[in-house]
UniProtKB/TrEMBL annotation:
Name used for this protein in its record: Type VII secretion-associated serine protease mycosin
Active site: residue positions: 69, 104, 278
Species, as recorded: Nonomuraea maheshkhaliensis
DNA repair is among the record's keywords: no
UniProt superkingdom: Bacteria
Length: 414
């Protein structure tokens, strides 16, 4: 991920951007699993998100989810035919002829749109939206890649996330997953996020994996792009659906999803187990894809509201900084989206929308949209209209599986 300014070495950098996976101490990468063992290992997540019930309504057909990450292996048997390889914004950092590892990106893509393999697709990884397509946009390097140092230090690689967002929007993405994080907001990223929202694209990002670290004000660090207004910031829960100890807790968190011991695909038909807000973010991006498949014209604020209003395991009082409005439930989110489909929010992104014009042929009328505040949770229309506004700069570091994928100007950890 990117830093707030020019990248420097991890640890000394003011704004290290990292992948949203597990801290090394908290999330040991287990041995690769056999393909026929994988689906059983997914059952807890499938049940928590109520995917079988959701799939009666939508499987994500016709939706394009951009995965801004380290690259996706399009040949993995659980993703074959569903991946379009897009632009590599890291090009030139690695020596010519270097094959990118693409571990983290493949892992995230499988959680979003894996379709399994074998008879009736019953082996391997099944994603939340198995009929959705993936656009792979490479915006980070993993630390074992030879160009890692160059990528972290060269000025030309600054703002690759902002460029990746704009590229994904222009390529027709309906949802953008960003299982990445950084500590400082930049003008270019704010503008890119505002652009995406104005075009109706849902942005989902990992809240970060520094939940064991408090900053002034008694909350965990903010990370970006998750903390930008208009982005669905996702925290991670453990097997008991409580906040995972590594998951950032602050007022940016909108919803949560499982993030501990999550099965996923790796390059070369491998399978991995990991933990982090990266995985939680990918699962929520899959739910957003289910909604967009059913309601293609639904605006980002309403998609976010559908997921938040229908969340289960809600905290006392309805909201807290640990899991936001609760754990996303795909089946209930689709039902709530259907209810909201006849309404329109008063604004989206930089462009106000006519409140008298209905969405998808439904009845007109403004609908309130969730707004997150540090000290209180209120509900406002047009949360996305503030996507270009300034955001609080703070510290955030995230991890990729057991390895740190760091970058100064683009370090990784989530």
């Amino acid at each position: 991920m990117l830093t707030g300014g020019r990248g420097r070495g991890v640890g000394a950098v003011v704004g290290v951007l990292l992948l949203a996976a597990a801290p090394a101490a908290a999330g040991t990468l287990l041995h690769p699993a056999h393909a026929d063992d994988v689906r059983g290992g997914q059952q807890a997540v499938i049940e928590t998100l109520k995917l079988p019930q959701a799939w009666r309504t939508s499987k994500g057909a016709g939706v394009l989810v951009a995965v801004l990450d380290s690259g996706v292996d399009p040949g993995h048997r659980d993703l074959a035919g569903s991946v379009r390889v897009g632009k590599d914004f890291t090009e030139g950092a690695n020596p010519p002829g270097t094959t990118p590892s693409r571990l983290h990106g493949t892992y995230m893509a499988s959680l979003i749109a894996g379709h399994g393999h074998g008879p009736q697709g019953k082996r391997g990884i099944i994603g939340v939206a198995p009929e959705a397509d993936v656009l792979s946009v490479r915006v980070i390097l993993e630390d074992e890649e030879p160009g890692f140092r160059e990528f972290n230090s060269a000025e030309r690689f600054e703002n690759v996330v902002a460029k990746g967002i704009r590229y994904a929007v222009d390529e027709g993405a309906d949802v953008i997953n960003m299982s990445i994080s950084k500590e400082l907001a930049t003008r270019e990223e704010r503008a890119a996020i505002r652009y995406a929202i104005s075009k109706g694209v849902v942005l989902v990002a990992a809240a970060g994996n520094r939940g064991d670290r408090k900053v002034e004000g008694d909350f965990a660090p903010y990370s970006y792009p998750a903390a930008f207004p208009g982005v669905v910031s996702v925290g991670a829960t453990d097997g008991e659906l409580r906040r995972a100890t590594f998951s950032n807790w602050n007022s940016s968190v909108l919803v949560a999803a499982p993030g501990v011991d999550i099965m996923g695909a790796g390059p070369g038909d491998e399978y991995w187990v990991g933990r982090g807000t990266s995985q939680a973010s990918a699962l929520v991006s899959g739910v957003a894809a289910l909604i967009k498949a059913r309601h293609p014209r639904m605006s980002p604020p309403l998609v976010a509201r559908a997921m938040a209003d229908s969340a289960t395991d809600r905290p006392p009082g309805g909201y807290d900084t640990a899991t936001g409005f609760g754990v996303v439930n795909a089946a209930k989110a689709l039902a709530e989206a259907a209810r909201l489909a006849g309404h329109t929010e008063t604004a989206a992104g930089a462009q106000a929308q006519d409140p008298a014009r209905p969405l998808a042929g439904g009845q007109a009328g403004p609908v309130k949209v969730i707004f997150r505040d540090e000290r209180r949770v209120t509900v406002y229309a047009a949360v996305a209209a503030t996507a270009g506004a300034g955001a609080l700069a703070s510290l955030a570091v995230i991890f990729i599986l057991v390895r740190r994928v760091r970058r100064a100007s683009m370090a990784q950890d989530a």
